[in-house]
Amino acid sequence: MDSTFSRNIMYWGDEAQERISSSHIAVFGLGGVGGYCAEALARSGVGELTLVDFDTVSKSNINRQIIALNSTLGMPKTELFEKRLKDINPELKLNLINDFYTDDFDFTGIDYVCDAIDSMRSKVNLLIRCVRNNIPVISSMGAGNRINPDKLYICDISEIRDKKAPFVSNILYQLKKYGIESGIRVVASDEKPFCGIKISELEKVTTSKGEEIEFNKIIPASTPFVAPVSGIIMAYGVVQKIATI
Asked: Which range of residues forms the domain containing residue 161?
C-alpha cells in the first residue's frame, strides 16, 4: 500500500484508487473554489491535472484562496499550484495553462472537467462545449455573496432549488438558448446571495495568442468559508463518479 494515499485506500479500496490515479481532470479557474478543488484532487491521488488560469495573486485573494499569501502577491496562480501540488505528489502529471480560457481549448484525453470560472461568457462557453463533446463536467454555481457553507449541495443543473439567484438564472437562461437544461452536475447553494457593496470593473485580458478580450466583471463578496468548501465538494463529486464510491 502506497503510504501517501493509504488512508484513501482504507476507505475506497485499491481498485477505486487505481481508477483515480489513471484519471485526467481539468480545473478551469484557480480562485477560491478551483484552488481548493485542485488540491483535494491531488490529495485524492488523481494522476494528471490540467490547470487553467490567467491570473496572478492579488491582495483581495488572501481571505479565501489557498495559495494567496503576502509572500505570493503578483505571482501566477498556475506556477504556485505547480510547486504546491508537486510537493503533495511528485508523481502527479501537471499541464499548466497560464492563459484565459477560449473556445480553442483541446479536451483530448480529459476525463472530467471542473468549472470554477467566474466570468459569465467563458463559463457558459465551457459548459456548452463539455455537453456537446460528452465530457463529464461539474460547475460551481453559488460561492459568491454567501457565508454559510452548510447550504451547499450537489445536483443536476435541472434540480437547482433557487433558480432566481442572478448569477444562476443568467447561466440557465444562456444554456437554455442552446437546448441545455440538464446533464451538468453543479455545486449550488440554498443561501440567498447578499452583497453590501456593489462593485464592477472593466477587465481587459490579452491571451497568449494575442487575442484581446474585454468584459465587465461584477465583483462579488466572498467569504473564507463558502468558496473553499465549494471547491472541496466539487472535488468530492468528481472522485465519487470516477471511483464509483
From this structure: 3-193+222-243
Q: What is the dihedral of CA 197, 214, 94, 113, to 10 degrees?
A: 70
User: Is the per-residue pLDDT at 177 higher than 70?
Assistant: yes
Angstrom distance (rounded) from CA 158 to CA 182: 5
Beta bridge mates, 156: 185
Total tally of structural domains belonging to the chain? 1
- Does some domain include residue 205? no
Cα separation, 175 vs 107, whole angstroms:
20
Whether residue 215 is contained in a domain is answered as no
CATH number for position 68: 3.40.50.720
Could you tell me if residue 213 is inside a domain? no
Residues near 152 by beta carbon (within 8 Å), at least 6 away in sequence: 142, 187, 188, 189, 226, 229, 230, 233
Judge whether 28 lies within some domain.
Answer: yes
Reduced to 3 states, what is the DSSP secondary structure of residue 224?
Answer: coil
Extract the C-alpha cell encoding 145.
455573496
pTM, whole model, 2 decimals? 0.95
Q: What is the rounded distance in angstroms from the CA atom of residue 147 to the CA atom of residue 193?
A: 9
pLDDT tens digit sequence for 40-64: 999 999 999 999 999 999 999 999 9
Residue with cell 485542485: 38
Q: Bridge-partner residues for 27, per DSSP?
A: 51, 114
